[in-house]
Specification:
The protein is mainly β. It is built from one helix and 20 strands. Strand 19 and strand 20 form a beta hairpin. The two termini are 39 Å apart. The N terminus is likely disordered.
């Protein structure tokens, strides 16, 4: 605890010079550059039509890459971006721009907590961190489903050599509470916006999420939600599960998707009562749809 406090005061102390007047950033930026395409190798990716299937889209807040980031003294930091799913989606990959190669890069998908702090880790994996002046695409080994209206964070932690600037920022300005968060190990797990002291940088990370829409509720279109009153007994479940919906005599359809986005169950009923058995352990998305409403919820099956 004392060590962490000392580190924090040291970093904040760098913000002022001996006269207490001029700010000095802990975060250092590389010099400006033009993008040298000749540095690309076959295992590295550009944002081009051939890198995406027809049903993939990219969520992002950033513009063109401008400067790489170096944290002197620690040589390790994490950059993060917070997204809100405009409709039910599956996260397929994370895109990020490297100004310089990193010694190690780990990608994290995190759940929601607050506007300023990410929640628990949903998944993490090590990715290729080689290359210079290049977009990298890190495909998730296990694609993640996110319901409409829910936040998720994509964060990348890098370890780098003294004179290298791996993760990259655009020209800004920052999209507040979304486009630019940073965390360094000496400050434990606390995240800051890039505009906060001692970073003082009004920019967004060049970090993007590649997603595929699942065809669920679209919060942008104002589709009615909640009328179905979808409920599970029990939740979490270990054996069979009963799914209930107040159908009021109309035909409703239940679809169940696993965490890969694969449809594993589909049935239509008028009474709104569905009984499922023998689903493997995992996280599932249940979607109920009627004539003029639809609703979806997650369910954890434990064994």
């Amino acid at each position: 605890m004392i060590r962490n406090l000392i580190t924090l005061f040291f970093l904040l102390g760098l913000v002022f010079n001996a006269q207490g007047v001029e700010k000095e950033k802990v975060l250092h930026l590389s010099s400006s550059y033009s993008l040298p395409i000749s540095f690309l190798t076959p295992d590295e990716y550009l944002l081009g039509p051939n890198d995406f299937s027809e049903d993939e889209e990219t969520l992002h807040y950033d513009a063109e890459p401008d400067r790489g980031v170096n944290i002197r003294g620690t040589y390790c930091y994490a950059g993060g971006v917070r997204f809100t799913a405009p409709e039910s989606l599956i996260i397929l990959a994370v895109l990020f721009y490297l100004t310089d190669p990193a010694d190690l890069a780990i990608v994290y998908i995190r759940d929601q907590r607050t506007e300023l702090q990410p929640g628990p880790i949903i998944d993490s994996f090590r990715t290729n961190s080689g290359g210079q002046y290049v977009w990298k695409r890190a495909n998730l080994p296990r694609p993640v489903i996110v319901p409409a209206g829910r936040d998720f964070w994509t964060t990348i932690t890098v370890w780098h050599s003294a004179n290298y600037y791996p993760l990259t920022l655009d020209l800004g300005p920052i999209v507040p509470t979304r486009g630019g968060f940073i965390s360094i190990p000496t400050l434990e797990t606390l995240w800051h916006q890039l505009t906060d002291p001692p970073f003082w940088t009004d920019r967004n990370w060049n970090i993007r999420a590649v997603v595929k829409w699942t065809g669920g509720t679209d919060i942008r279109e104002g589709i009615k939600k909640g009328r179905g009153q979808l409920s599970f007994l029990p939740n979490p479940s270990r054996d069979g599960i009963e799914v209930n919906c107040l159908a009021k005599g109309e035909m409703v359809e239940l679809r169940v998707y696993n965490h890969f986005g694969k449809l594993v169950y589909s049935e239509r009923r008028k009474d709104g009562c569905f009984r499922l058995k023998e689903l493997p352990a995992g996280v599932y998305l249940f979607r109920i749809k009627g004539k003029d409403f639809q609703e979806e919820k997650k369910l954890v099956i434990a064994r």
